[in-house]
Amino acid sequence: MKKNSPSTRNVTFIQRMLNRINKKRIKWSEIYLGAAGALHRLLVEGRRKRAAARRQQQDLPLSVLTSMKLEPGDIVYTPSSESTYYAGHMGIIGLDGKVYHVHPYGPVFADTLDWYLTRFYEGDRFIVFRSRLRQVGDRAAEWVEDHYRQVKHYRLQTDLLSIERNYCSKFIYQAYKFTSGVDLWGRRFSKIKQGFIYPFRIERSADLDVLGTFYK
């Protein structure tokens, strides 16, 4: 029986060394992943769960929202969630009581409030805003009814004057800006006609009051 040649023994030795190194790497990877997972659950998931629990204590059931009498110009905002593609979504109440909202599958819809709420998942939150001036909300509501058919494409476009290419928060921004000059973005340089009107910008507007927060 032939003995292993020196080259064969060297290859075998190298393979054993590599195997030991790989085992150590796997072991340390398991330790790292375990520790990282524990920290994530402690610092991130735990905080999210606690925040969600606090919100549920503060928020009202969705049945309260559906029984409310919303006024023209009121804004219904859903913060970032899976059903909003983690971007947030909002609609505005028209003079006819319907929720007008620009949507990727629309490009624009006019829904009853009950139907609008079915578009979102269990656990989603809804924040309702109202303009501090009644006539401002009425004008915005009238504008969306008159112009929603002009929206032809759902686009995240920077041109703030374009109605044809639009998205949910920009459409609401236009309704207030074009009718009463109210800038829900609250920019320092309001004459600039370019930019993205993210939903959270309108959420922070000083021109709106919060009517309530609700959970589904």
Notes on the protein architecture:
- Helices cover 44% and strands 18% of the residues.
- The protein has a seven-stranded mixed β-sheet. Strands 7-8 form a two-stranded parallel ribbon.
- It is elongated and about 80 Å long.
- With 216 residues, the protein is an alpha+beta fold.
- Helix 4 packs across helix 5.
- A hairpin with a 5-residue loop joins strand 3 and strand 4.
- The termini are far apart.
- It has six helices and nine strands, in the order αβαββββαβαββααβ.
Brief summary:
44% of the residues lie in helices and 18% in strands. By secondary structure, the protein is α+β, with helices and mostly antiparallel strands. A hairpin with a 5-residue loop joins β3 (89-93) and β4 (99-102).
Oligomeric assembly: single chain
Q: Give the integer mean of the pLDDT values.
A: 84
Low-pLDDT sequence parts: none
One letter per element, helices H and strands E, the order comes to: HEHEEEEHEHEEHHE
Portion in beta strands:
15-25%
What radius of gyration results from the CA coordinates? 27 Å
Structural class: alpha+beta
